[in-house]
């Protein structure tokens, strides 16, 4: 029932919705659909949004094999290649005007990572060597322009001069390094290594795993720290529950692809601990609370946190099959999503979030951060994992 419902939701709801956001006049996909379901065809187009849509259609094609899905991915790739990619200085812009002209020319490491993630999947789906080449060039750019001796820096001007990291800083701090950017560079490099086998990328993955284990993970508190100064000193007392459960399964995925016994031995206890702690601390009322700052819990149920919790708990169950409570939690959170987070109005998708009384927040349905990446990936992961499990029986 669980996997069948999610497959139906992917095929009947998510894919048609995102097909409908395609812009055939200026390219790419529209950048804004308000809570009122009014489409703004002249809204800014976030490059993260376009990368995530490219990733979504590439993986939808890989899963379902329908040629039309690959054509939508090709449409997104053309926009990324011709508009999101800076032909002068290299790298991916932050955002574009609806016409495809640069709007915010900030170069952020996070943004480069999502382009790599998308291009690697698109290469796997299409065999287009140009996509792989761009992904490799972006990874080289990250390694040479966006990294110091301690790890990955964050924000830069168009020509890669360091800038203040206001885009990936929250909760009243400006961070020189973030757990979030590190996680998504790791995620992107995992996919790039999977399709390329490039040993330089493997070396970078190992570097990041060491940073996670030695700097980001707080063993005493059983959590990841979130915002840091240049040398990985934490700036704030914050539990980011969604990022912790997302990290648990993404690191496990990276370990599988990397296939290095010493790193698996080093990191697996951490991913198990993160999964258990999120189950014990944040899984409340059939869903995950958002975060806890200075002992104050934010009870908002955010769309992406719930989606990552489904995958994270399913992953935890598959890693430790005796933990049947994790499988039940994944199924329980999906039921919560189905009941409260999926917007049943025609022409909509998921709400951004609901409050503790399960009332939707009146935030956009689509905007530069609201995309088919988390909920689409939840669908892909559940279908693939449950399908693989049934075939193994």
Write the SSE topology.
Layout: H1 2-19, E1 45-46, H2 47-64, H3 67-84, E2 95-96, E3 102-104, E4 107-108, H4 109-126, H5 129-145, E5 155-156, E6 177-178, H6 179-196, H7 199-216, E7 217-218, E8 223-224, E9 227-228, E10 238-240, H8 241-258, H9 261-281, E11 283-284, E12 287-288, E13 291-293, E14 296-298, E15 301-302, H10 303-319, H11 324-341, E16 353-354, H12 373-392
Antiparallel strand pairs: 1-2, 2-3, 4-5, 6-9, 7-8, 10-13, 11-12, 13-14, 15-16
Helix pairs in contact: 1-12, 2-3, 2-4, 2-12, 3-4, 4-5, 4-6, 6-7, 6-8, 7-9, 8-9, 8-10, 10-11, 10-12
Structure, explained:
This protein has a single domain (2-385), classed as Glycosyltransferase (Alpha/alpha barrel). A hairpin with a 2-residue loop joins strand 11 and strand 12. Helix 2 packs parallel to helix 12 (373-392) and helix 7 (199-216) crosses helix 9. With 393 residues, it is mainly α. The strands form 7 sheets. Strands 1-2-3 form a 3-stranded antiparallel sheet. It has a 3-stranded antiparallel sheet with strand order 10-13-14. The protein has a two-stranded antiparallel sheet with strand order 4-5. The protein has 12 helices and 16 strands. InterPro entries: AGE/CE (IPR010819), Cellobiose_2_epim (IPR028584). This is Cellobiose 2-epimerase. Catalyzes the reversible epimerization of cellobiose to 4-O-beta-D-glucopyranosyl-D-mannose (Glc-Man). Belongs to the cellobiose 2-epimerase family. It comes from Faecalicatena faecalis.
